[in-house]
Structure formats: C-alpha cells, structure tokens
Amino acid sequence: MKLIDGAFGEGGGQILRTSLSLSAITGQPVTIQNVRAGRAKPGLLRQHLTALQAAARVCGAEVEGDALGSTTVVFTPGAIQAGDYAFQVGSAGSAHLVLQTILPILLAADGPSEISVEGGTHNDHAPPFEFLAQAFLPLIHRMGAGVSATLVRPGFYPAGGGRVVLRVAPPGGPLGPLEVMERGPLAGQRCQALVAHLPYSVGQRELAAFSARVTWPTHGLEVVPMPASLGPGNAVVAELRFAHVTEVLTAFGSRGIRAEQVGRGLADQVRAYLSADAPVGEHLADQLLVPLAMGSGGRFRTGPLSLHARTNIAVIQQLLDVGVEVAQRDDGTVEVTVGAP
C-alpha cells in the first residue's frame, strides 16, 4: 500500500487524479491522505468524488472514503475493464477532470471503450473541451492510441449540465514515445467566441478587442452561439495550430466583466505564448506527464514549470519506477524528459 500525502506541493485535486490513474494501471493500492489540503474547502468536492467513483468502476476497485468532504481515500484496484461507461458530476464541476482521471486507465485496457461524462465543459477552473479535443488528444493519437471527443452539449458555470463523449481505442501495448521540442511552422489560427443565452454582440465585442491587440486573420474569427447549453455562459477560445503542436488558450466571460476586457485578456495570453517560444504551454505540459510516464517516455520543451506540474512529477515518481528530468535551457525554456535514467 502506497501512502500519498495530498497536502504536498500545490495540495490540490491533481494529486488525487494522478494517484488514482496510476494505481489502477499498476495494480498498486494507494491511500491518499489530506486530500486537497491546499484548497480553501479541503476534501472531495463533487467532481473529485465522481472521478474517484469512475476510476473505481473501470477497474473494479474497492474504495474507502468515497464521500463528499472526505480527506482520506483508500483505493485498492482490480482488473481494468474496457466497456461503455456513463458518469454524472451532478454540478458544473469539470467533466474534463473526470475524463483526465479515467482516460489513462482505459488506454491500458485490452479493448475499446466509450465514456460519457455529464458536468461542466467550460469553466475557468479547468481546461475547456476545445483544449481536450484540439491540443491534448492529437498528441495522444501520435503516441499510438485512437481517441476522439464529441461535445454533445456545452455546460457553463454555474448551470453545468454539459455532456462529453470520449471514444478510446487503446494501442494494444505501451503508448509510444513522444517528442515536442519545436512548434514548427504555423498551420492555422482560429478564435471563437462561444455565446450561450447571451447577446450575439457580446461575442462580436470580444473578438473586436482580441483582434485589435494581436495579428489575426479575419476569416479565423467567429461567434458561435450555443443554444443547447442549459444556462448562460461565455468563453473565447484561441487555437494556434502549428506543425508539431496545437495550443488552445481560453478566457471566460463572467458577470461584471466587460466583453472587451475578456477579449484583451485572451490576446495577452496569445502574445505571451508566442513570445515565450516554448511549444508546450503550461496546461499541456501538466497533462502530458502521466501519458509519457505510463508509456514509452519522451521529452518536450515548455515554459517555467508550474507548482502543479512539479507536484504531478513527484506523485508519478512515487508510483512509477520512471525518471523525470527537468533542465533549464539558456533560452529561458525548460526541457522535460520522461523516462530519463
């Protein structure tokens, strides 16, 4: 039984998610104490509880501490079972973070799976659906797995109620190696203002403010109404597609924040990403660590590692016999090598 301290490092839900994924993959039981001790409201929230229950279901695990507010979880995994699964967060809690927990597990299964998760798909506490579909999953495909994502219904905070379906075809062995050291030539740009039950003009104002601050083709600007959403919501999503990597950056609208401020904020994110010359952005760097560690390894170049990512590395090294090397480069970027001796 491995003991994981949930108060370590950034002390958030990523420690729980990574521990559950790797426990299921390795068959190693874990006890996670001080769950989310670094947060204002410690313990399991609804999205963390759903992730725990989902991980348990796909590998037949025995679980202790599976209750809202629980700060200690004992997870004893069984055999991973491919199949069709449906989970409901029951709030605007992130569907993406539930999928982040169980996708690595089902990539290690012996057959294809389909996963439906209902919850939040667009909120400012987790990467949105577009990041999953356009930035993260294409790299998983390059590692040899077939994974597709469908946004059945968007779910904005606070109403939630979105639905994402993931279809997973495992590689039939370890994930292949991945290297993302350069962006390569720019292949496409798109910026979409997602508007649910709000005036179309909100999106127009956001895109006008965005395009006034960065160089962007007019044909790559689009307001996208989302009438299927159960409640109002707004996000602006910029996609920068390069030959070797796609970065997706997002700014969320909220009550009391002017549309122009949202658009300018996203433009500043785009400018910062381009000026850093690091192909892998902060969120993508964090999410690549587990697939690389459970597979054949690889390396990527990113900006300064967040505490979130450093904490994730520490958890990985507690549960897997794999080296992770972090090297500062002269150009200010950081080279991360997973599977280092």
Q: Average pLDDT value?
A: 96
Shape summary: globular
The CATH homology group name of one domain: RNA 3'-terminal phosphate cyclase domain
CATH architecture of one domain: Alpha-beta prism
Under CATH, the topology of one domain can be stated as UDP-n-acetylglucosamine1-carboxyvinyl-transferase, Chain
- Parts with pLDDT < 50 across at least 5 consecutive residues: none
Radius of gyration: 19 Å
Ends: how far apart? 25 Å
Our count of helices gives: 8
In total, how many beta strands?
Answer: 16
Sheet with most strands: 4 strands, mixed
Give a structural overview.
The protein is α/β, with parallel strands linked by helices and 341 residues long. Among the domains are: 82-173, Alpha-beta prism (UDP-n-acetylglucosamine1-carboxyvinyl-transferase, Chain); 186-276, Dihydrodipicolinate Reductase, domain 2, CATH 3.30.360. Helix content is 33%, strand content 28%. It contains eight helices and 16 strands. The strands form four sheets. A four-stranded mixed β-sheet has the order 1-2-4-3, with helices on one face. A four-stranded mixed β-sheet has the order 5-6-8-7, with helices on one face. It has a four-stranded mixed β-sheet with strand order 9-14-16-15, with helices on one face. Strand 10, helix 5 (200-211) and strand 11 form a beta-alpha-beta unit. The mean pLDDT is 96.
